[in-house]
């Protein structure tokens, strides 16, 4: 596993001061997906736990979602001056350049440091970890971490494996430099990857590997391919392993965890991960039924939903866990801060 990353009391780290999220206006229910795929709505529901998903309209892009989520998070934090922006995404607006500088510009943040981070569905926790490191350096005082994906733009909507699963969205948090004894501080984190499993979640076309072959990509190579059974098995194993690792670093027992906020891949993965680490299912935050798998946006969207419903309260001990393409995985712990009420992640 990763090297020791526990933040001792008094250690400089990231403290969450605001949160925001956004979802596209278009809602696609299982009935519409089922009719296209020649299956039943129950077939989708039983396999994934998903009832509906939000999809970007034509000409919509990741940056549109990221800007709105970022704006809402900044408003919730009192619109502080921001020193850097990290955009966790695997669906940037363009292959080149990165999307984060455009998002920073549209938010009016000036010429701050801004960059994309691609760890797929683990991206938000990776971004939190990277942001905490930047704040711990003493060079930066405040950052904006955004997880955003228009994942539907790389999904074949005629594919029974991927089409029912994915949706689009964005979530963001404002973080400031603080100490590990403050509510909202990132207490510990663990990150990992295994490139030997690259092929279980992969879009073959569009990158230098395919383009250097000097041959046109077939249409299916432009879409996300997924080996579902392998993803299921490795997602549960890696998120459980990372969760137990980060709990040990934090000094928490499993029963200390009030809320598990894991990547919303599908309901079966979420409940199986909770069971694997010995946590009651009712402590796992689940909103995949309403938003589907939104990749890097999934954890902040789940935090927003849980906060809005009262399921997540100030003082709760929170465990974050994620698994994504690459493959990558991540986990982190924090005590949820007392944040002001925020607008729901309604449509943009």
TrEMBL record:
Q: Where is the Beta-ketoacyl-[acyl-carrier-protein] synthase III N-terminal domain?
A: 115-195
InterPro entries this protein is in? Answer: ACP_syn_III_C (IPR013747), ACP_syn_III_N (IPR013751), FabH (IPR004655), Thiolase-like (IPR016039)
Query: ACP-binding: where is this region?
Result: 264-268
All copies of the Beta-ketoacyl-[acyl-carrier-protein] synthase III C-terminal domain together span 247-336
Domain of life of the organism encoding this protein:
Bacteria
Annotated GO MF terms: 3-oxoacyl-[acyl-carrier-protein] synthase activity; beta-ketoacyl-acyl-carrier-protein synthase III activity
Compartment(s): Cytoplasm
**Biological or metabolic pathway of the protein:** Lipid metabolism; fatty acid biosynthesis
What EC designation does it have? 2.3.1.180
- In Gene Ontology terms, what is a biological process of this protein? secondary metabolite biosynthetic process
NCBIfam families in the record: fabH, PRK09352.1
- Known function: Catalyzes the condensation reaction of fatty acid synthesis by the addition to an acyl acceptor of two carbons from malonyl-ACP. Catalyzes the first condensation reaction which initiates fatty acid synthesis and may therefore play a role in governing the total rate of fatty acid production. Possesses both acetoacetyl-ACP synthase and acetyl transacylase activities. Its substrate specificity determines the biosynthesis of branched-chain and/or straight-chain of fatty acids.
**PANTHER family per the UniProt record, alphabetical:** 3-OXOACYL-[ACYL-CARRIER-PROTEIN] SYNTHASE 3 (PTHR34069), BETA-KETOACYL-[ACYL-CARRIER-PROTEIN] SYNTHASE III (PTHR34069:SF2)
Q: What is known of its domains?
A: The last Arg residue of the ACP-binding site is essential for the weak association between ACP/AcpP and FabH.
The entry assigns this protein to a family as follows: Belongs to the thiolase-like superfamily. FabH family.
* Name of the protein described by the UniProt record: Beta-ketoacyl-[acyl-carrier-protein] synthase III
């Amino acid at each position: 596993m990763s090297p020791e990353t526990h933040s001792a009391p008094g250690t400089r780290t990231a403290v969450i001061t605001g949160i925001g999220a956004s979802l596209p206006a278009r809602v696609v229910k299982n009935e519409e997906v089922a009719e296209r795929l020649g299956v039943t709505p129950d077939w989708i529901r039983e396999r994934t736990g998903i009832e509906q998903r939000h999809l970007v309209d034509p000409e919509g892009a990741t940056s549109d979602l990221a800007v709105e989520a970022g704006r809402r998070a900044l408003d919730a934090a009192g619109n502080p001056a921001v020193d850097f922006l990290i955009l966790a995404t695997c669906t940037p607006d363009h292959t080149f350049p990165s999307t984060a500088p455009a998002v920073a510009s549209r938010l009016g943040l000036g010429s701050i440091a801004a960059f994309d981070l691609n760890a797929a569905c683990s991206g938000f926790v990776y971004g939190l970890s990277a942001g905490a490191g930047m704040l711990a350096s003493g060079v930066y005082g405040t950052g904006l971490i955004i997880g955003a994906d228009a994942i539907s733009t790389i999904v074949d909507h005629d594919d029974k494996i991927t089409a029912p699963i994915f949706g689009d969205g964005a979530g963001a948090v404002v973080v400031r430099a603080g100490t590990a004894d403050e509510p909202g501080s990132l207490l510990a984190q663990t990150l990992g990857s295994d490139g030997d499993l690259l092929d279980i979640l992969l879009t073959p076309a569009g990158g230098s590997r395919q383009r250097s072959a000097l041959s046109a990509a077939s249409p299916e190579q432009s879409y996300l391919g997924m080996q579902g059974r392998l993803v299921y098995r490795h997602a549960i194993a890696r998120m459980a392993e990372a969760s137990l690792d980060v709990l040990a670093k934090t000094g928490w027992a499993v029963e200390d965890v009030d809320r598990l906020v894991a990547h919303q891949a599908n309901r079966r993965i979420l409940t199986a991960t909770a069971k694997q680490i010995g946590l009651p299912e009712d402590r796992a935050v689940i909103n995949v039924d309403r938003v589907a798998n939104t990749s890097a946006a999934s954890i902040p969207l789940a935090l927003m939903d849980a906060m809005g419903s009262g399921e997540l309260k100030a003082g709760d001990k929170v465990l974050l866990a994620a698994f994504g393409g690459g493959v990558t995985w991540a986990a982190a712990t924090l005590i949820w801060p007392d944040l002001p009420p925020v607008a729901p992640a309604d449509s943009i």
